[in-house]
Amino acid sequence: MGGSPHPHVAVVAFPFSSHAPKLLAVARAVASAAPSATVSFVSTADTLPRFKAGAAPANLRFVELASGVGDGDLAGTPPWRRVELFLEAAEAGGLKQALETAGAGGTRVTCVVGDTFMSMAAEVGVPWVAVWTGGPTALLAHIVSDTLLQDIGEHGAYAAVAEAASRGDELVTYPGLGRYRVRDLPFIGTRHGGEFRRIMSQLFRRVAQRVPRAATAVAINAFPGLFPPDISAALAKALPNCLPIGPYFLLPGTCAAADDSHGCLAWLDGRPACSVAYVCFGTVASLPPDELRELASGLEATGAPFLWSLREDSWSLLPPGFMDRAKANNSGLLVPWAPQAAVLRHPAVGAFVTHSGWGAVLEGMSGGVPMLCRPFFGDQAMNARAVEHLWCFGKAFDDDKPFTSGIVAEAVKSLLDGEEGIQMRARARELQAKVVDAFGPDGGSTDNFRKLVELLCAHE
Ligand code: UDP
């Protein structure tokens, strides 16, 4: 490999929700593929211990980035304020300082591979490769959001957007977005509000300004051929040097052992093929209490075994006796965390009930499992739409149609046992085969990852 004799790549995480593990996968893969490079994984002090666990390539180091909370009470600061303080500190020189620390006493940082949310990396004076962790078409939408919102009658007037959303208008005039509806857009005002909304819209405004102008390349969590040609062409046009290198969790060198401390895989081992419904809504989203109870009753009504990863603070909201009954007849396992990617590859899993976060979509696809999508916010509605209409391996519910016990029972049964489920599983397995091909010796993701590593090692 040519280029600098001592490349030093800083991989910068956005240390909230599921972003950082996805960046860590990229960091580990780059470190394994370029043993002569130094790779510094940059994240906040409270998150680093988690990422240091397990064996790491010898050239991978960990560097602290200011949380922005200072001497304040990290745990007592509300989540939205932590995000805001962190971004303010990183914008105000915190990222630059962390990169100087990374380079102190050794090779200075020659290139930043940063979460796209950390777009202040555009200003630090070395080439910036942006890593997008979410659904790629959501990034397209963010980049054209100004025009888009003007066209659909927004800018303060969210009523107009909501009206367009309820009509279900499709975005046919926007390159790459023609299969999505107005209501699927990540910045439609009806889904989440308040402080988070304000912070995220500032963040995405900066992303939309900086990525097309300043990124040397943009890595996306997808493989070549995943999207139809019009969407791929729109991504290639909108994003400088767009490199589909995903799914990131399958990059060579990333495979750390799955954390199965709650015994999910052993519990699945005893089940017939495609018999279990796996339920998980990711690291942030949570169902309103009524809907959570409806989901629980619906699962129970199917009579099918279920594995449910649910954060512990929601367990008390489940219907009375729900878990006792599941335990008594060994029909369900409730855990606070599951090794999801491994669970979805287990032959016993036959349906995935999910918020359709992009990680979930790729893991469902890689496991060949049909999905039932109940999106909440961000890219999730676009992802759900793509699962149902682009790839046809699942069903999507609109977020204004809450789960009822009857809906859940019917949909889960149809995925596990029905004709529709058979067809969707066949589609999911075709996609699964494409994922395998993408990481073959001549596969599209293998090839793009090689290009990425060459690019990173070319900078001095
Ligand atoms: N995840 C997991 N076990 C759990 C819950 C979540 O392994 O019990 C992982 C999952 O594999 C996925 C990530 O957390 O990679 C969640 O990412 P996604 O993009 O689906 O959703 P987000 O949490 O960002 O909303």
UniProtKB/TrEMBL annotation:
Its EC number is 2.4.1.-. Keywords: Glycosyltransferase, Transferase. PROSITE patterns: UDPGT. InterPro entries: UDP-glycosyltransf_plant, UDP_glucos_trans, UDP_glycos_trans_CS. The lineage of its organism: Eukaryota, Viridiplantae, Streptophyta, Embryophyta, Tracheophyta. GO terms for molecular function: UDP-glucosyltransferase activity. Belongs to the UDP-glycosyltransferase family. It comes from Zizania palustris. This is Glycosyltransferase. Pfam families: UDPGT. PANTHER family: GLYCOSYLTRANSFERASE.
